[in-house]
Amino acid sequence: MRDVNAGGRASVHDAVSAARASSLLGALGGDDLSAVLGAARVVRHVRREVVLRRADDAALVVLRGAAKEHRTNLDGLQVLTNVLGPGDVGGLTTALGYPGGNDVTALERFEGLVLRGRDLRDLAASRPPVAQACLRTVTEQYADLHERSVAFAGTSTTRRIVHRLLELATRWGQPVDGVVMVRLHLTQEELASWAGVSRESLAKVLGELRRAHILHTGRRELIIRDLSALQARQRSNGTAASVIDVLLADAGSDEPRTAGQRR
Fold first, then answer.
1. Residue 253: which pLDDT band, with cuts at 50, 70 and 90?
2. Other beta carbons less than 10 A from residue 212's beta carbon
3. Packing angle between helix 188-195 and helix 199-211, nearest 10 degrees?
4. By Cβ atoms counted within 10 A, which residue in 5, 58, 72, 261 is the most buried?
């Protein structure tokens, strides 16, 4: 992990203004906030550099830029579990002594605060507001994870993908001449993993959305031409399978079907 905090503690205090929305830092004040910042380091990374490893005994608060949380599954494939932006916290459960976190890799130029697990645990033990902030942050993360799991359960492939596209537009989109531009460096493989669908399913859905003039995809950019239409797609799909989902199901089945038979 590259530490470039050449500016010392003053640079930490200057940088933290970018993370006031953080549930870990936002509610702290006075001596408690100073104690946390005094134990932190500022790290900066360029795209594709590893910010935090799963085994690192440390927590991360994103200040600027974006990073992906990911881990390798049993088949050796990388699974993207979350995209972190300013104010988000990574590695907290590991830093609090509970292993099982994710690797974190920068998606663009990145700046963050890193706290060693030992320091964070000492602060949480000696300062109740810090312990409460940690508890609140972990609770919010698990509540969000549960909500996403429920939202995706039984939903169509199209709705999962549209949900992620809308999340990208909301968090990282920039309105430009009536469209929304997202310049976050996510590959289609990463987007498919994040949505919990196959790469082939993603390609089919993106193709449908392009033909409907709802979005345009290019190298390292995503342009949403009609945000209202994309939102309508999410509402209309619900838990019912779209035409694309039916076609994908048909293609993946070896069972014969009779005329008029439905799945």
1. very low
2. 13
3. 100
4. 58
What's the confidence (pLDDT) of residue 19?
A: 55
Question: Can you tell me the distance from the alpha carbon of 28 to that of 140, in angstroms, rounded to the nearest whole number?
Answer: 16
Token pair, residue 106, equals: 């920068």
Position 236 scores a pLDDT of 75
Torsion angle defined by CA atoms of residues 139, 97, 91 and 60, in that order, rounded to the nearest 10 degrees? 100
Cα gap 92→97, rounded to integer Å: 9
Q: Which amino acid is at 207?
A: G
> Please, are residues 43 and 59 in contact by the beta-carbon 8 Å criterion?
no
Among 27-31, 174-178, 243-247, name the one with the lowest average pLDDT.
243-247
Asked if 130 and 123 count as a contact pair (C-beta separation under 8 A), the reply is yes
Task: Please say whether the beta carbons of 262 and 187 come within 8 A.
Answer: no
Q: Are 226 and 214 in contact (CB under 8 A)?
A: yes
DSSP-assigned letters across all residues of 141-208? HHHHHHHHHHHHTT--HHHHHHHHHHHHHHHHEEEETTEEEE-----HHHHHHHHTS-HHHHHHHHHH
**How far, in Å, are 70, 95, 193, 200, 248 from residue 73 at the CA level?**
10, 22, 11, 19, 24
Residue 138 CB neighbour total at 10 angstroms: 17
pLDDT tens across 30-60, in order? 899 989 989 999 999 999 999 999 889 999 9
Here the tokens at position 109 are 């130029």
Tokens representing residue 62 in the block: 């994103």
Dihedral angle, C-alpha 241, 247, 251, 254, nearest 10 °: 60
Give the distance, in angstroms, between the CA of residue 78 and the centroid of all CA atoms in the same chain. 14
HSE-up of residue 12 (Cα within 13 Å, Cβ side): 20
